[in-house]
């Protein structure tokens, strides 16, 4: 059996991917195993610092146990963890729904693989494998080679085998709908629990945007909602812009970090020999100011006190011009029932004002977007959409180049590319490397940059929840992948393959497309194999994260605070990216499942490795700072159904091009049935999944045996980050033991206390509200408690 470059690329991909996977396992097991507790596994977060979770009956739910040591122990421990309500409470609904999505796609592809396996011998007996490669005029024929022999390209238009393809399509449609219906049902149940939970602060808060200009104050917003919900309002947080506050907070923590580093240097740097460290400040060429050498500990202690004082004055409103009103507020209700009513009903006279929606969890609120004016929202969405579409369409340039690489032999048939004749004389393995392996590799590298641009473009929209931002990024990224990696690759590859014939006979495009689109399956198979055998094993190692952390810990980080920051770097899991990859792989497998059945095997391999590795990563090495309640699964379901519809439309088109009108019409019926299934799912599950169930709320209240009242900590949780008070005492994480610290630390605290007291006494502009909070601005604390005493700043909000 002859081999085409694409088939040779598949073989190379399997060999190279197998080597990478083997090396990943060996390195993971024998090199990084001993470093796992400090390099990857956030044991302190998962086991020590994370409090025990309680269920609705008050029963304690322990965190996940540490898995056994060694590669097999870690991976087996991850595989054995069940995707149940225990994991929802300990790790969040986002994680459970994502892992369930990958697992469902794995079983779906396995089931489809059993269906299409029957097509392999049927396609393999087709007539086109016996054709010569060139006709009498020197043009390429429809001869199939390698993997192409067991694809739809090997079937003639009026062949009885087409009916087996139609039957397989019908079975795949039924199987896909059953799997996705089961997932959506589980998703809706989980979302109902999420929306009825007492522990979820977003069940007690709404976001109000586009507030009338005459009501732009906390008291007026409170009066407005008290009028609508008497006795139900716990607090109102009118949102002010806090960019300047956040910058000052960043400088405050930078001063804390630098002071701790200076203290560590004094105790541990042999060059200092116990002397206090110094550094130069104040150099400015334009003002002809020379740098002065200052005591580092004293300087950064003073900066810490200065910014603490400055932040306190900002937070009590001494600089109103620096804190512009945003016409947005967060209203916290006493009960879950009142919150649900307020978030789903329009209470204003006009739709353009007092827009309400359920608030995200406190850590998931996209605070900067609340400052965007309502008049610009539609324009921002339009600009963002247009720019992303332009990015998608301009992507045809690199994809066309890569398709040229994938079809070098076909290009040499054109007079303009005769200079590439040497390609046909290359060994098959080299040609397979260039044409079959390099294009998907280069494409995957380019695609890694696309989410960065999409993130920037989505960021200009007003989306008050970070989970919604992730969902939009996932949707745009998936649409981009469908166009660039599927539709355009199939069309451009088909046109390049038979470019000479199309130039000589443009009318033959219909026949050629019907037979040549399946030939691009080898590109898709290579792309999926590259993800499964190269990208996924490398994500298991997280080498980039490990290298950065090693450099930081080895050369830059010395204090406990710096070391923790280095350990925490790179732990953010980009759900939108991995959802999009899973969706595009599933779409490719669905579209080409009956065109080139072997692609399903590649998809099974991808989802198997992706599910296992991502499950391990999410359980033990990665964590996100916010939770969106698993809402990304809704868009993932829609994406898979779009892939199923795309499959049916493509098959209807191919069968129509092959002059099989009856099977093509039956494919259209499958399209209509799938659309009806989508309508059924959205009308019966999605609204309940979004808003929850009042009945479930009432059942939870009865089961809890206590009034439905918001917990005391919820109102303070919805204060914007800039206005959250700094801690009264910052833990001193300089890494110096008390014996060495006592010699100088008490002196620095006392010096900072004196300076702060003098500054507060001499500052006449301090408001009366802030002065009581100063009290004893820098009280001396015992050096044995390892904390830096700070003044208390009153919280903002009612």
UniProtKB/TrEMBL annotation:
Positions of the CSC1/OSCA1-like cytosolic domain: 204-368
The keyword Transmembrane helix is assigned to this record: yes
Subcellular location: Membrane
Highest rank taxon of the organism: Eukaryota
CSC1/OSCA1-like 7TM region domain residues: 380-654
Topology versus the membrane: Multi-pass membrane protein
Keywords: Membrane, Transmembrane, Transmembrane helix, Transport
UniProt domain CSC1/OSCA1-like N-terminal transmembrane: residue ranges: 11-182
Coiled coil: none
One Gene Ontology cellular component: plasma membrane
Molecular function in Gene Ontology: calcium-activated cation channel activity
Membrane-crossing residue ranges in chain numbering: 12-32, 106-124, 160-181, 382-402, 437-458, 478-503, 523-548, 595-614, 635-656, 662-682
Presence of the UniProt keyword Isomerase in the record: no
Entry-linked Pfam families: PHM7_cyt, RSN1_7TM, RSN1_TM
Family to which this protein belongs: Belongs to the CSC1 (TC 1.A.17) family.
Protein name: CSC1/OSCA1-like 7TM region domain-containing protein
């Amino acid at each position: 059996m002859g081999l085409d470059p694409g088939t040779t690329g598949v073989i190379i991909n399997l060999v190279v991917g197998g080597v990478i996977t083997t090396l990943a396992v060996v390195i993971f097991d024998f090199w990084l195993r001993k470093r796992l507790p400090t390099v990857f596994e956030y044991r302190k977060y998962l086991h020590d610092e994370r409090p025990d979770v309680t269920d609705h009956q008050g029963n304690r739910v322990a965190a996940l146990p540490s898995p056994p040591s060694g590669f097999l122990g870690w991976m087996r421990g991850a595989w054995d963890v069940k995707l149940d309500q225990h994991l929802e409470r300990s790790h969040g609904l986002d994680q459970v729904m994502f892992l369930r999505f990958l697992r469902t796609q794995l079983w779906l592809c396995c089931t489809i693989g059993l269906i299409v396996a029957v097509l392999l011998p049927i396609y393999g007996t087709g007539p086109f494998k016996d054709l010569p490669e060139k006709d009498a005029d020197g043009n390429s024929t429809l001869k199939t080679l390698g993997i192409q022999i067991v694809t739809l390209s090997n079937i003639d238009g009026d062949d009885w085998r087409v009916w087996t393809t139609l039957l397989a399509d019908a079975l795949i449609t039924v199987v896909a709908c059953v799997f996705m219906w089961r997932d959506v049902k589980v998703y809706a149940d989980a979302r109902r629990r999420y929306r009825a939970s007492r522990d979820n602060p977003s069940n007690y808060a709404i976001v109000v945007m586009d507030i009338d200009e005459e009501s732009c104050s906390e008291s007026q917003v409170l009066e407005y909602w008290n009028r609508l919900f008497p006795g139900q309002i716990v607090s109102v947080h009118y949102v002010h812009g806090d960019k300047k506050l956040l910058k000052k907070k960043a400088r405050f923590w930078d001063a804390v970090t630098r002071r701790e580093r200076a203290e560590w240097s004094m105790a541990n740097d042999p060059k200092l020999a116990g002397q206090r460290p110094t550094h130069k400040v104040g150099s400015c060429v334009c003002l002809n100011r020379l740098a002065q050498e200052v005591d580092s500990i004293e300087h950064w202690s003073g900066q810490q006190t200065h910014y603490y004082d400055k932040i306190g004055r900002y937070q009590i409103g001494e600089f109103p011009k620096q804190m512009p009103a945003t016409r947005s507020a967060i209203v916290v209700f006493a009960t879950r029932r009142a919150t649900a009513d307020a978030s789903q009903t329009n209470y204003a006279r006009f739709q353009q004002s007092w827009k309400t929606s359920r608030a995200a969890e406190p850590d998931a609120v996209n605070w900067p977007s609340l400052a965007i004016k309502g008049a610009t929202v539609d324009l921002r969405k339009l600009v963002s959409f247009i720019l992303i579409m332009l990015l998608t369409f301009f992507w045809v340039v690199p994809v066309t180049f890569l398709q040229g690489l994938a079809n070098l032999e076909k290009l040499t048939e054109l007079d303009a590319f005769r200079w590439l004749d040497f390609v046909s004389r290359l060994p098959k393995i080299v040609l397979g490397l260039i044409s079959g392996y390099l294009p998907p590799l280069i494409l995957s590298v380019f695609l890694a940059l696309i989410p960065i641009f999409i993130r920037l473009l989505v960021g200009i929209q007003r989306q008050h929840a970070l989970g919604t931002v992730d969902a939009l990024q996932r949707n745009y990224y998936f649409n981009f992948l469908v166009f660039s990696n599927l539709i355009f690759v199939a069309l451009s590859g088909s046109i390049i393959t038979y470019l000479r014939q199309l130039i000589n006979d443009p009318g033959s495009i219909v026949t050629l497309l019907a037979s040549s689109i399946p030939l691009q399956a080898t590109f898709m198979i290579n792309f999926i194999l590259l993800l499964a055998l190269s990208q996924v094993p490398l994500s298991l190692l997280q080498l980039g994260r490990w290298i950065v952390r090693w450099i930081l810990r080895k050369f830059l980080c010395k204090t406990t605070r710096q070391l923790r920051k280095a350990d925490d770097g790179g732990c953010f899991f980009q759900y939108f990216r991995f959802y999009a990859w899973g969706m595009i792989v599933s779409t490719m497998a669905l579209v080409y499942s009956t065109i080139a059945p072997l692609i399903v095997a590649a998809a099974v391999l991808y989802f198997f490795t992706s599910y296992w590795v991502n499950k391990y990563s999410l359980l033990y090495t990665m964590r996100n700072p916010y939770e969106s309640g698993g809402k990304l699964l809704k868009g993932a379901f829609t994406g898979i159904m779009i892939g199923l519809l795309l499959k049916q439309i493509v098959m209807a088109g191919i069968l129509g091009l092959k002059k099989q009108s009856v099977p093509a019409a039956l494919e259209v019926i499958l399209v209509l049935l799938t659309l009806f299934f989508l309508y059924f799912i959205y009308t019966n599950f999605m609204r309940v999944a979004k808003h929850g169930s009042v009945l479930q709320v009432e059942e939870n209240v009865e089961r809890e045996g206590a009034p439905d009242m918001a917990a005391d900590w919820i109102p303070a949780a919805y204060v914007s980050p800039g206005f959250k008070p700094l801690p009264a005492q910052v833990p001193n994480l300089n890494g110096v033991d008390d014996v060495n610290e006592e010699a100088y630390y008490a002196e620095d605290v006392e010096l900072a206390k004196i300076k702060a007291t003098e500054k507060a006494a001499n500052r006449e502009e301090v408001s009366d509200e802030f002065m009581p909070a100063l009290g004893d601005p820098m009280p001396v604390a015992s050096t044995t408690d390892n904390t830096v005493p700070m003044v208390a700043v009153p919280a903002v909000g009612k």
